[in-house]
């Protein structure tokens, strides 16, 4: 029997909001987007016009609407904490775009407030629930590579000022390649291997200014306020050792996105900023073999984590892109920077469970069987 729909209000109607609106109103049966808001009312109106049944309202009105169960917070990183806290205080569950918040303090405050209010908090990325990364999860859980020994993750690029219409936030606190792209890589690694207990790292800023070449802000110069090349080493709680490099300072590379190395074999993990494959495995001295995906949601399924949260709200089960996972990832990203600043290893204060794997064979639009 179909569960009663969960009503969603979106705050932040910028670049990424279109795919959320599309998937939440057209793919996931349990979700019903009823309202959207933005500081810039025109943006909210434009999205409401594009997607029927959605009202454009002010943020204040959206938060005061008793019909809305979940706020999907698609604002810029520096507003994530404040907007989410206001939503929680209004009695709403919240799904934030990444990162969960900018500072650990904001993140902790949000988790505490959600607990007190009895609402759920979590957020992006939900790519770890996609067909590609769920196939990797199944291969690891079924023992195809043995016990994880090591992992490597690389995000090598030159930043977003050549294409994003408003790229300033990528170079301000809450931005930089680790806070912008790290959540995809770290969430995938934690889902596949488990939580991290200790890190070290080194960071640098190569270009103190960035010239915007995308429209409409072409010619604007952005002052870079955060490290733009971050190298990290992770000791996972289960003993595996990981390395990660995230960079906006290089012109690309040919390193893999993620590889996981086990006692019995190696796993080639797809780009964690996508939902699909390819997935390949190498057992012992054998050759690499591409593995067909075992799970659905291999297309851009942003909103899958919101749908999962909605099922959790209806059934009382745990949700996957949850507060422990998103906070652990936030803590980790800070820890690499702290380690670099202090010249020491940093012990993680937070931890989390690996979120449950998704069931196989789900019908399109469903998250529970
Ligand atoms: N653009 C992408 O490809 C992409 C992909 C994945 C995730 N994200 C994440 O999604 C989030 C939004 O990114 P974007 O690219 O859509 O940015 P954007 O700048 O295009 O849109 C953000 C919107 O939020 C609004 N906003 C800011 N503060 C607000 C507040 N306090 N209250 C209400 N509205 C507010 C802005 O007016 C703007 O319309 C970021 O966290 C980003 O990391 C973006």
Mean pLDDT, to the nearest integer, reads 97
Count of beta strands: 17
The end-to-end distance, rounded to whole angstroms, is: 10 Å
Give the overall shape: globular
Number of helices: 9
> What is the string of helix and strand elements?
EHEHEHEHEHEHEHEEEEEEEEEHHE
For the CA atoms, what is the radius of gyration? 20 Å
Uncertain stretches:
none
- Order of strands, widest sheet: 16-15-14-13-7-12-11-8-17
Helix content: 25-40%
Could you give a short description of this structure?
This protein has 369 residues and is α/β, with parallel strands linked by helices. The chain contains 9 helices and 17 strands. A 9-stranded mixed β-sheet has the order 16-15-14-13-7-12-11-8-17.
Keywords:
17 strands; nine-stranded mixed β-sheet; binds nicotinamide-adenine-dinucleotide; alpha/beta; 31% helix; six-stranded parallel β-sheet; 23% strand
Structure description:
This protein is of the alpha/beta class and 369 residues long. 31% of the residues lie in helices and 23% in strands. It has nine helices and 17 strands. The chain has a nine-stranded mixed beta sheet with strand order 16-15-14-13-7-12-11-8-17. The termini are close together. The structure holds nicotinamide-adenine-dinucleotide (NAD). The site of nicotinamide-adenine-dinucleotide (NAD) has 22 residues, from helix 4.
């Amino acid at each position: 029997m179909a569960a009663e729909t969960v009503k969603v209000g979106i705050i932040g109607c910028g670049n990424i909001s279109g795919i959320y609106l599309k998937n939440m109103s057209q793919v996931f049966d349990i979700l019903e987007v009823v309202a959207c808001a933005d500081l810039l009312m025109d943006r909210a109106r434009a999205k409401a016009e594009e997607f029927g049944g959605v009202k454009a309202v002010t943020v204040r009105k959206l938060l005061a609407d008793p019909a809305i169960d979940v706020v999907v917070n698609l604002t810029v990183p520096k507003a994530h904490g404040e907007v989410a806290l206001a939503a929680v205080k209004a009695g709403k569950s919240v799904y934030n775009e990444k990162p969960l918040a900018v500072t650990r303090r904001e993140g902790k405050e949000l988790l505490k407030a959600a607990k007190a209010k009895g609402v759920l908090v979590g957020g992006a990325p939900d790519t770890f629930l996609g067909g590609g990364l769920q196939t990797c999860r199944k291969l690891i859980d079924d023992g195809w590579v043995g016990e994880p020994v090591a992992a490597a993750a690389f995000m090598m690029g030159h930043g977003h000022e050549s294409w994003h219409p408003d790229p300033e936030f990528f170079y301000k606190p809450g931005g930089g390649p680790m806070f912008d792209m790290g959540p995809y890589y770290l969430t995938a690694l934690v889902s596949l291997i488990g939580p991290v207990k200790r890190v070290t790292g080194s960071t640098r800023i190569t270009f103190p200014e960035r010239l915007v070449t995308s429209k409409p802000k072409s010619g604007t110069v952005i002052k870079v306020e955060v490290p733009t090349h971050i190298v990290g080493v992770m000791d996972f709680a289960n003993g595996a050792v990981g390395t990660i490099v995230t960079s906006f300072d290089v012109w690309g590379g040919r390193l893999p996105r993620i590889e996981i190395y086990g006692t019995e074999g190696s796993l080639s993990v797809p780009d964690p900023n996508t939902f699909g494959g390819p997935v390949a495995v190498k057992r012992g001295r054998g050759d690499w073999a591409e593995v067909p995906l075992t799970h659905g949601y291999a297309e851009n399924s942003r909103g899958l984590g919101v749908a999962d949260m909605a099922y959790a709200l209806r059934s009382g089960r745990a949700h996957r892109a949850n507060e422990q996972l998103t906070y652990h990832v936030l803590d980790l990203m800070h820890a690499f920077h702290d380690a670099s600043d202090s010249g020491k290893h940093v012990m993680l204060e937070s931890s989390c469970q690996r979120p449950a794997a998704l069931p196989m064979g789900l019908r399109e639009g469903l998250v529970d069987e």
